[in-house]
Each structure stands twice: as C-alpha cells, then as structure tokens.
Write a structure and sequence with these properties.
mainly beta, 37% strand, 4 helices, elongated
Length: 418
C-alpha cells in the first residue's frame, strides 16, 4: 500500500495587534508616594489629589529618547502558513504482521520573528573598547566623536560611542513587536513502524523515528540570520505490548484447576511500554567577552581534533564524573566572534530512557458488579537516568551533572463497577 498526501494550513490571525495597539505618548500612569512613607499625600477633607504630572497626549518626537521602542512591520498581519507533505509504503508480511515506512515533512513560513533593527554596523567593531566609553569622554573626544543631538549626552546608559553608531541613536532598540512575518521552520523525518496483531493473546507495536527540524534565528551579528537546529532528539525508538496471560480455564496453562483457583489466576493482562530517545543538542555557553555590551551575541569556540566527551556510559558515571571535556572548547574574549553556534548536533546529552509496566484484571463479584484492579509501575527497575550536564564553560562545574530522573513509582488502582 502506497500513500501520499499534502496540505497547506494557516494559523489564526494575530489578534494582539488589535487589542494592544501602540499608544506611546497617548496614555499616562502617574504614581505618587509619600516622602517619608508615613505622611499622607493629601487629606480627603482638604486638598486634592496631586496634579503635578504631564497629561497626555505628548506629541514631542523625543518622548521615547533613550528608551526601547516597538516597530510594527507592514507584513505583521500576514497569516503564518505551514505546508505538510507525506509519503508512506506499507507492506503486510504474513497474516498478522505489517511493516510501514513513512516520510513526513513540513515547511512553515511567515512565522512571527522578533528582530532588532537598531544594531551597530559590524564595521564599528574596529573601535574596540572605545565603544563602551561615554560620548563626552576624553578618549571619545580625541577620536573625533560628538553627540548626534544635543540631549544625547544626558541619556544615562545610552550615551556611549556604541549608541551613537546605531542607525537610530535616540533609541536603545527598535524591536518588531509582536513580531514580523519572516520566521521560518522546516521539519523532516523518517518513521518506521511494525505492528503485530493479536495472536495468542499478544499484541506488539514498535516504531523508530529519525527526525530533524530547523528554525530561523539571529546569529552573533544581529543583521545575520541562519537556520538553527532545534533542541530535539534525532532518533527515537518505542515499543509497547499487551499480553493476556494464558492461565486458567480455556487457556494453555492450568486449564483444569478448580473454580476458586481459576477465579484468581485467569483473566490477567500485562501491558508494557518502553521509549528511548537520543540526547538533545547542547549549547556550550562560552562567552567571556564584550559583544553582549553592544547588543551582539557571543559564541564560544571549538578546539579541532579534541573529543567533547569524557565519560558517556551511564554505568560508569558518578556524581563526580564529567560528561563534557572542557579542553574541547575555549571562551571567546573581547569583541571576537566564536564558531560554536547554539544547539550543537555533535554535542548531545545522555539518552532518554523510559520503561512502564501495568498489571491488571477485572474480577466478577456478581453478575452486575465487577472489581477492576491494576498496578502501575513507572521505572519498575529503579534505574537512575542522568540529566543534562552543566554547559557553562566559565563555571568550575562545567561537564558535571546535578540531576537524575525520578526513581521507581508504584501505584495500585481499584474500582468497583456496577
């Protein structure tokens, strides 16, 4: 059996554009407080509520100088769309066994994407540490820098050389809000599935999936964008089964037992489920420089030829072990870019492993009364699964693991149905 399908889907309209319009300068939320925290601001029987606040509207173009502003792009209301496409081949092998292979892909465009359009051109990095100096500092004056407008020098925290080199030096950022429609995402996966139909009280189902997805992201330099690997497992395997135990009257074992014994041993079922995922991509935080102070991101660096791992076998791992090798990475300093992008496909955490078991049976008490009894075992073998390691290269705990999965959990369930 061969199947194929495709479709285009559109998301809902971004209603927040209507409910929260931009209103800078056209509203006011004045606050007043007592000078000493005790004396009232005014008395009800005399005086009036303080009136010494500016009343809107304020149409002064410099109203938001020294602050961050939002920018509504023309395509902000464009509906995001997703194109899905699948192709599968299914084959029945024998009477009760079928195999299936499925390719599933999707491409999403016009997604909401938050971007800052007020970033310093990359050529400005040539000024080095001068970028963080106030515009009226002796070093800035000696280099020939002047305030782009008279009140610029008085904008505390936003009066640096770096700020003056921005396209809009009067604003600390010009951010698309709630976002522009330039976001993208793509997903591809191969899914294989095997199903063993009911045969002698046993049903088996298993699948293996390989998948990858990427989303549009901003690189270290805000004007550069790239498709970034999403932090999802690449491989996933799952297997489940349902088995009616062959004990009691009419079954393969203990068919001739007495009626009281048969009432106890017959009709039991066991369900099981296991799932194993490959580790998620890790992000090595190794920024130790100054790019963050000028609105850029800063990545670390990889050391060629050095393995990023030390101890990866969970059985050999202890709380004092190190999963990651600090020698495989170096920090980026000053105003230098790094080569380690986030979510590294070649540096992943421990595999995720999960097992569950359920035993259960329905006992007939009377013709219309039944006892439904079951026991659920989560992590029945009480395995300790390690969490992801510390990924901050500047931390002494880099590569260590400080978390584990929960231990065994047993839950008994009983219900009378009538």
């Amino acid at each position: 059996m061969i199947r194929a399908s495709g479709g285009i889907y559109y998301q809902n309209a971004p209603q927040q554009l209507i409910t929260t319009p931009f209103h800078a300068g056209f509203n006011a939320s004045p606050t007043f407080s007592s000078a000493d925290g005790f004396t009232p601001l005014y008395y009800l029987d005399s005086g009036t509520f303080p009136q010494n606040f500016q009343r809107p509207p304020s149409t002064d173009p410099s109203y938001l100088n020294g602050q961050a502003i939002s920018y509504l792009v023309p395509n902000a209301t464009r509906l995001p769309q997703t194109v899905n496409y699948t192709f599968s081949i299914q084959r029945q092998i024998g009477k009760d066994l079928s195999l299936e292979a499925v390719y599933l892909g999707s491409r999403s465009t016009h997604l909401a994407f938050t971007a800052n359009y007020d970033y310093m051109p990359i050529s400005g990095l040539s000024y080095g540490t001068l970028l963080t100096q106030p515009i009226n500092s002796s070093a800035a004056v000696a280099a020939g820098f002047t305030s782009p407008y008279p009140s610029f020098v008085n904008q505390l925290g936003a009066n640096t050389v770096y700020q003056s080199l921005r396209p809009y030096p009067q604003y600390t950022s010009v951010t698309t809000s709630p976002g522009e429609g330039s976001g993208q995402q793509k997903f591809n996966s191969l899914q294989t599935k095997a199903t063993k139909r009911l045969s002698g009280g046993l049903t088996l189902f298993g699948y293996f999936t390989w998948s990858k997805s990427f989303s549009l992201a901003t690189a270290q330099y805000p004007g550069e964008r790239f498709m970034q690997l999403d932090p999802n497992p690449a491989a996933s395997f799952s297997f489940s089964w349902t088995y009616s135990l062959p004990f009691g009257k009419g079954q393969h074992f203990l068919n001739g037992v007495s009626r009281p014994v048969n009432a106890v041993i017959s009709g039991w079922k066991i369900n099981g489920f296991v799932k194993y995922n490959s580790g998620v991509p890790l992000t090595i935080n190794a920024a130790a420089g100054n790019l963050g102070s000028i609105g850029y991101s800063q990545w670390g660096n990889a050391v060629a030829g050095v393995s990023p791992y030390i101890t990866t076998n969970p059985r050999d791992f202890t709380p004092n072990s190190k999963y990651l090798n600090a020698a495989a990475f170096t920090t980026s300093t000053g105003f230098n870019f790094g080569n380690l992008n986030p979510n590294l496909s070649w540096v992943r955490g421990f595999w995720f492993k999960e097992e569950n078991l359920t035993f259960g049976r329905v006992f007939s008490i009377k013709e219309r009364a039944k006892l439904d009894f079951s026991m659920d075992f989560v992590n029945p073998f009480n395995f300790h699964r390690w969490g992801n390691p510390n990924t901050s290269l500047t931390s002494a705990a880099f590569g260590t693991v400080s978390s584990v999965s929960a231990g065994r959990t047993v839950q008994a369930n009983a219900a009378i149905r009538f």
